[in-house]
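Run Transcriptional repressor PaaX-like central Cas2-like domain-containing protein through structure prediction, thanks.
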Amino acid sequence: MVGEEKIEKNKKFARDERTLEILEAIAKLGFILFLGVAAPNAAGHIIKLLGWVPDYRNRYSTEKALKSLENKKFIRFWIKNSTGKLELTNEGKIYFAGLKAKSVKLPLRGKKWDGLWKIVTFDIPEKFKMNRRRFSAVLGIAGMYNMERSVFVYPHECKEEIFKIAELYLVHKYVRYIVARSIEPDFKIKNHFPYTK
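Sure, done. The structure for Transcriptional repressor PaaX-like central Cas2-like domain-containing protein is below.
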């Protein structure tokens, strides 16, 4: 049973990696053009673009990934004059940002604290509420303390990581990074990070 779970996890990891590579290729180029009017043509073009072996297994997996992304409305196919165009939707851009954000790690909790609090604040417009919600969720998952609705605190230097995440969600110009000697009262924050007491 444990072996089967491990195999399934490995399959999911492989699917996620393939999906991430496909999304990354589209995101970098802005869109992908391909000849023909069907997804298989796009799959063949992507396989060539990413340097994958053009065998049955890769074609099947790529077509399946594209179909799944299209069903979830993360990508959009356009057809004009027998030429196909593949691009990310807004939902797809946010999903891609989420996958990339998972790879961004904040400095480990428990390392020696320098006595300075790192504070992240943001005032993101309502028109970007989905980006704001996802950005906020990622900060919490990464280990920051949510002091107030749009204020997060962390004990260690993390400016580079925070703005990398913010850029992924296209909200970096609305984010501020502050370094403070003290926050009063701070007992809730220090309870969240016991090694700062």
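Strands lie at 32-35, 75-80, 83-88, 117-122, 145-148, 151-154, 175-180.
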